[in-house]
Structures are given as structure tokens and as C-alpha cells.
């Protein structure tokens, strides 16, 4: 049964080349897994995530632009750098997903240049959590920090107050 | 949790986005912006509200605050700007 499922996915990816965001999310579930295929996420998912833009955020500093897009269980991070003609070039692009990442349904994302991390509001059934990931880390990695609170219900968004070192969740 | 603002007096019903300034919290909620002090707690009413027909806020999606200007983006991507201290049924800048 599992083999059939994997084969179906591979056919969908390779022959039809018509990948839907849902396929990317399924690939995300298996991302980095040593026991199942596919363990990577097709490059086509980058564009699908950009188009979906379920939630996104960016910040620009003098030498870098960081853009993050979240959708389903997938977090796409793109780091740009300006060349001498002020043209933005992609320096690095990666997806964070997979079991270790804890991502299940991303509700909101925020970049935070103060600690070079992306903060993610995630929903797992009725549980709402805040996770953070370093800009440079991707793949099936555990969050750098986790805030799991049973007092957060039906959260939709959040903001980071770096001055007070607080996070407001709505 | 350090503190929370909740209850009928807050007028928070369907919060969509949030921004903060040095001292205030701006909550985009339905077609209005609710402003609270950062140290408000419990069932505090907003200190001011930006809402009404003149504001043109309609099915808003995002709120940003930069250089003391609040910008609200409607679902049709129309952006409406207000002074940070705006209150009531004000027209965008």
C-alpha cells in the first residue's frame, strides 16, 4: 500500500509534471525522512508557494533582503543579496518542513532581523504554537525555539516587539 | 502568558493583523482599527478606533506602521494611510 502511494506520488511528479500545492505538502510530510520517498521537495513547489502566498513577510537591511512564505506545512525562505548594480540576486532558497520541523498548518510568519530568525504561528489540530527557525537553516530541522501555550486559542496572527522582548498573539 | 486583553469591551471579534508602536497596539479587526495601550489588560476598551464609511476600510487584510503612518490594505489591494494618531471616521491621507 505504501509502495503504491509512493509510486503514485512519483508518477504525479515526474510524468504529469503538474504538481499541486497539496502534493508539495505531502512531500513536506516526508521531507528529510530516511524511511520514505520522496525525501525531497520538488523545485516546482517554490513557485507554487510563491503564488499561494498564504502568509508572507520580508525585511530589508542594507545588505540583505529576506523573504519568507508559509503555506500548509511548508516554509519557503529566500535570501537575496544586492549586486553592485543594486540588482537583487538570490543567494539562498530553501524549504523548512518535515516531521522534525513540527510544522503542520502555518497561520502566520514574521521575519525578525534582530535575531536573524523566522517566527511561525502554527496550528496542529486545536493546538497553537510559535516556532522560530534561523534564516540559514532549512530542511527537516527542529525549531530553534518553541513556544507552546495552552492559553492560545484560535490565533490568527502575531507581532514581535523586540524592544520589550515580547510577542503579541491575536 | 504575561497578560491578555479580552472581553466584550475590547470590541475584538475577528482580529486579522496586528502592529505595534512604542506604546500602542493596533489591531486590524473586521473593518476597523482598534488601538490599545501596550500595558492594557483584561477587558479594556480601545483607547481609540478608526472606523466608519469615510475610512474606506473594507475587507482589510494587512496593517503596517511606518514613520508614524498606519497603512491598511483592503482585499482589493487598495492601500489606505492614516496618521498614527487618527481616530474615528476619518478619511485616508
3D architecture notes:
The complex is a heterodimer of chains A (170) and B (93). Chain A contains three helices and ten strands. Chain A has helices at 2-16, 21-29, 44-52; strands at residues 55-61, 64-71, 74-82, 88-96, 106-112, 117-124, 127-134, 145-148, 158-161, 166-169. In chain A, the strands form three sheets. In chain A, strands 1-2-3-4 form a four-stranded antiparallel β-sheet. Chain A has a four-stranded antiparallel β-sheet with strand order 5-6-7-8, with no helix packed on it. The radius of gyration of chain A is 17 Å and the shape is globular. Chain A starts with a helix and ends with a strand. Chain B has 93 residues and is mainly β. Chain B has a single domain, classed as Thrombin, subunit H (Beta Barrel). Chain A binds chain B through residues 149, 151, 156-159, 161, 163-164, 166, 168, 170, and chain B through 1-2, 4, 12, 15-20, 22, 25, 27, 38.
Keywords:
heterodimer; A: 170 residues; alpha+beta; 4-stranded antiparallel beta sheet; 19% helix; 40% strand; B: 93 residues; mainly beta; Thrombin, subunit H; 3-stranded antiparallel beta sheet; 7 strands; 0% helix; globular
Detail the topology: elements first, then pairings.
The complex is a heterodimer of chains A (170) and B (93).
Chain A: H1 2-16, H2 21-29, H3 44-52, E1 55-61, E2 64-71, E3 74-82, E4 88-96, E5 106-112, E6 117-124, E7 127-134, E8 145-148, E9 158-161, E10 166-169
Antiparallel strand pairs in A: 1-2, 2-3, 3-4, 5-6, 6-7, 7-8, 9-10
Chain B: E1 15-20, E2 24-29, E3 32-37, E4 48-51, E5 60-66, E6 69-74, E7 79-83
Antiparallel strand pairs in B: 1-2, 2-3, 3-4, 5-6, 6-7
Amino acid at each position: 500500500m505504501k509502495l503504491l502511494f509512493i509510486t503514485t506520488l512519483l508518477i504525479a511528479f515526474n510524468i504529469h509534471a503538474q504538481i499541486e500545492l497539496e502534493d508539495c505538502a505531502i512531500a513536506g510530510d516526508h521531507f528529510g525522512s530516511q524511511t520514505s520517498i520522496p525525501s525531497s521537495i520538488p523545485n516546482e513547489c517554490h513557485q507554487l508557494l510563491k503564488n499561494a502566498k498564504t502568509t508572507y513577510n520580508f525585511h530589508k537591511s542594507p545588505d540583505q533582503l529576506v523573504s519568507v512564505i508559509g503555506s500548509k506545512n511548508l516554509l519557503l525562505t529566500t535570501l537575496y543579496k544586492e549586486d553592485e548594480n543594486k540588482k537583487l540576486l538570490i543567494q539562498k532558497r530553501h524549504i523548512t518542513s518535515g516531521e522534525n520541523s513540527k510544522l503542520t498548518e502555518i497561520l502566520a510568519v514574521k521575519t525578525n532581523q534582530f535575531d536573524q530568525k523566522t517566527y511561525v504561528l502554527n496550528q496542529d489540530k486545536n493546538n497553537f504554537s510559535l516556532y522560530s527557525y534561523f534564516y540559514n537553516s532549512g530542511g527537516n530541522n527542529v525549531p530553534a525555539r518553541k513556544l507552546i501555550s495552552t492559553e492560545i486559542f484560535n490565533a490568527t496572527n502575531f507581532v514581535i516587539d523586540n524592544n520589550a522582548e515580547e510577542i503579541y498573539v491575536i | 502568558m504575561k497578560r491578555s486583553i479580552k472581553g466584550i469591551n475590547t470590541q475584538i471579534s475577528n482580529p486579522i493583523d496586528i502592529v505595534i508602536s512604542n506604546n500602542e497596539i493596533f489591531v486590524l479587526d473586521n473593518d476597523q482599527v482598534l488601538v490599545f495601550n501596550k500595558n492594557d489588560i483584561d477587558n479594556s476598551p480601545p483607547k481609540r478606533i478608526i472606523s466608519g464609511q469615510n475610512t474606506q476600510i473594507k475587507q482589510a487584510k494587512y496593517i503596517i506602521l511606518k514613520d508614524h503612518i498606519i497603512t491598511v490594505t483592503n482585499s482589493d489591494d487598495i492601500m489606505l494611510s492614516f496618521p498614527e494618531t487618527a481616530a474615528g471616521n476619518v478619511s485616508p491621507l
